[in-house]
Amino acid sequence: MPHQKLSALVDAICSLVICNDSSLQRHQIIFNPDFFVEKLRHEKPEAFTELVVSNITRLIDLPGAELAQLMGQEDPQLPGTSSGFFRSLMSLKRKEKGVVFGAPLTEEGIAQISQLIEYLHKHLRVEGLFRVPGNSTRQQNLKEALNSGTEIDLDSGEFHSNDVATLLKMFLGELPEPLLTHKHFHAHLKISDLMQFDDKGNKTNIPDKQRQIEALQLLFLILPAPNRNLLKLLLDLLYQTAKKQDRNKMSAHNLALMFSPHILWPRNVTASDLQENIPKLNNGMAFMIKHSQKLFKAPSYIRECARLHYLDSRTHASKDDLDLPVPRNFKDFQLLKFKKRGLVDPSAHQEDTQQHTEEALKELFHHVHNMPDSAKKKKLIQQFQKHPEALTPQAGVPTPRTQKRARTRSFSGLIKRKVLGSQGSLDKKGKDAVLESAGMKEQKHGSKENVSMDSRKYTRFHGSSTKESSI
Length: 471
Known about the structure:
The protein is mainly α and about 475 residues long. It has helices at about 5-20, 35-45, 45-60, 65-70, 85-95, 105-120, 135-150, 160-175, 185-190, 210-220, 225-245, 245-250, 250-265, 270-275, 275-290, 300-310, 330-340, 345-370, 375-385, 410-420, 420-445, 450-460; strands at about 195, 205.
């Protein structure tokens, strides 16, 4: 069976399982398209960073110093931060602050602040949200409660949505560095300058949205995990807020003006320090809000590179995979890998990939089969039936003729024997006795009638619509 058809079937069934079957929510990690990306980032952070940054530099031009800053090899050189005394004074002030506000970003701090985000999702229709300030006394009480870790019931009516929105901005503004970090500052300026080119190769004033999205996807991949997690929560909140702008009067541009100083601007700078960069930063923030639903997915070539790295490591332990260029064409990428390793024929790799796909399909069929009877289960089974080649013997595999307990080597036989388990054996119990006796008689007497019976038994076992009447 062609590998492409198997993959298409797996993708179709997986999408239905993830979207429609709540009983399999705990298994979603199996079908997470970014699973190998996260695994590579966790286990080999340096190699992962080099892989991502090499593709960032393909999209934007970063001089040597800015590239070293992005890689964390040099301290960021930022506008308006030359005063060492001022930086030291601000650092001392931050040390006096509580465990949430003013402290470096941690997962514990995010857990506290996420309460504010969840509350605001329920009040997106409030006019002037994030623009109208709340009551300073109520905000101070809420801030102290968050710092002390006290349980807060925001739905009690003690606090107003404007109090919570203002406090969220305050938290972001008091972080030791902006949410998108100092070392990414120059990269964000360059991304805002990505423009389309005309037929003559001249740069236009039309933003190249696809390249901007791709560059942001890559840049977000190398953010620290707490920053990336909070950024995703925050951008989703602002995206949903902008969708309700007919009620709250807060468009993506208005929200960008409120949050750009807290998320993008370097600390301890003024508007005069940034000068012409302010429009770029504001436009960049508005762009992130509008396209937030696309920015936290790894580009397809990063997914493929990470997946192949782990699949190939079973038989070929080599760290050179990450040093290869990443072409857009998957087949070209495979050929490059085989040439580098000195392998002439990639058929062994293709067989391993097909076997992996078949194993995934078998496990998927097992999940579907164990689901309780419902309309959803029937719909999933219909997806398998739309691809009958997945339930018939593979081309090139000889079909067993007349043997005792004749067994097929087809993929459907593997599923029926290994996956269906005890329930399948109950259905076949009566048939097995007949088949066994038929096989014994055929071996003893060589009767044509018994051979015909065995042939019909084989076709019924595989669900074939064609029945042989004689041999």
